[in-house]
Specification:
370 residues, alpha/beta, 7-stranded mixed beta sheet, two-stranded antiparallel sheet, 13 helices, 11 strands, binds glycine
Length: 370
């Protein structure tokens, strides 16, 4: 059932291995990368209690010794204090230029550990072992690393590609259902942005995937990673096409800011709602068929996912307040908010040419429906 997706980036090329049991077999995949049989691992306390000893055993099978630092779980870790702690710890472990750092965790750990690897001794190699669906299909692949600033999320960072990604799909069995479905928001995003046939497949197989169909999980992760790899290979540093991966994210970032980056709205939930809004906006502007937004919503609803602003508990700002939050998005260029819109399911494009009134009206109606 295992699959390999190659990310063809010349000297920075690497493989993403996808399938069950990869943590147990990690030593066999990592040994060829090592010049001495030891690695350091950055993880979080929750992931450590679930998976760290399996990783230790998997590495030991190949005679590889492992030292690990478990940081507190949660988005709050992704800032200077824990980053400094991680880098100092790696230096304490005498990590050398040719060693490997392993990121064992979700997006927070992957981004922080990748950034630590990017700056440690001006760059050491690292391996991603993503333990959330979101990290497996998105954040562990493509080399975006970094931490949050008081000014906003992911504002400090570097492009630093991993040397290997091991996406062990068995770990998905340990995820709370809400986290799994939030990660699925990013999976749906891939179908919507670039592969209508994949979206059809998700409509048919998403429900089985959600309740544990292992083969469907491997297939969904593989197709998502393949699409990301193709896009990253063409546009590694997001000069153009890579921005398509931000479908739903302009709305999502405003909603995350409005909800204080709290448990009220997980990132993947915001992406799903943002995708539905992006299709609404595309239909209103006459860009995509009028029935597409309903089809997007129908699938999200069938998956029991957050789909509309009405699914977000508590107060939200008014439409102008949300527009103001969008104006702070990282993708703003020359003062223009950039949106990823669609000409249909599987056919997204980036544009700054969106009348603010159309966005305001859409948000006002979505807020009124709460
Ligand atoms: N998560 C979007 C990207 O990697 O470009």
């Amino acid at each position: 059932m295992r699959q390999t997706v190659h990310v063809p980036l010349g000297a920075r090329a690497y493989d993403v291995e996808i399938g069950p049991g990869l943590i147990e077999d990690a030593g066999a995949f990592i040994a060829p990368l090592l010049t001495r049989p030891r690695v350091t691992v950055l993880t979080d306390e929750t992931v450590a209690s679930l998976h760290l000893e399996r990783l230790r055993a998997g590495l030991a099978q190949q005679g590889i010794a492992m030292q690990a630092l478990a940081l507190p779980p949660g988005e709050g870790t992704k800032g200077w204090p824990q980053f400094t702690r991680a880098v100092e710890w790696l230096l304490d472990q005498r990590v050398e230029r040719r060693d490997i750092v392993i990121a064992l965790g979700g997006g927070v750990i992957g981004d922080l550990a990748g950034f630590a690897a990017a700056v440690l001794r001006r760059g050491v190699r690292f391996v991603q072992i993503p333990t959330s669906l979101l990290a497996q299909v998105d954040s562990s692949v493509g080399g975006k690393t970094g931490i949050n600033a008081t000014h906003g999320k992911n504002l400090i960072g570097a492009f630093h590609q991993p040397s290997l990604v091991l996406a062990d799909t068995d770990v998905l069995d340990t995820l709370p259902p809400r986290d799994l479905l939030a990660g699925y928001g990013e999976v749906v995003k891939y179908g919507l942005l670039g592969d209508a046939e994949f979206f059809d497949w998700l409509e048919g197989n998403g429900p089985a995937l959600a309740v544990g169909d292992a083969a469907a999980r491997v297939e969904a992760v593989t197709r998502s990673v393949q699409m990301k790899a193709d896009i990253v290979a063409r546009d590694e540093t997001e000069q153009g096409e890579r921005a398509l991966l931000n479908l739903g994210h302009t709305f999502c970032h405003a909603l995350e800011a409005a909800t204080g980056y709290s448990g009220r709205l997980l990132h993947g939930e915001g992406v799903a709602i943002g995708c539905a809004l992006a299709f609404d906006l595309s239909a209103r502007l006459g860009l995509c068929p009028q029935e597409d937004p309903s089809r997007v919503r129908a699938h999200l609803r069938e998956m029991d996912m957050k789909t509309d602003l009405a699914d977000i508990a508590g107060d939200l700002p008014d439409a102008d307040g949300l527009l103001a939050l969008m104006a702070q998005d990282k993708k703003v260029m020359d003062g223009q908010v950039r949106f990823v819109l669609a000409r249909g399911i599987g056919s997204a494009f980036v544009t700054s040419d969106v009348p603010p009134d159309a966005v305001r009206d859409l948000l006002a109606e979505a807020l009124a429906a709460r």
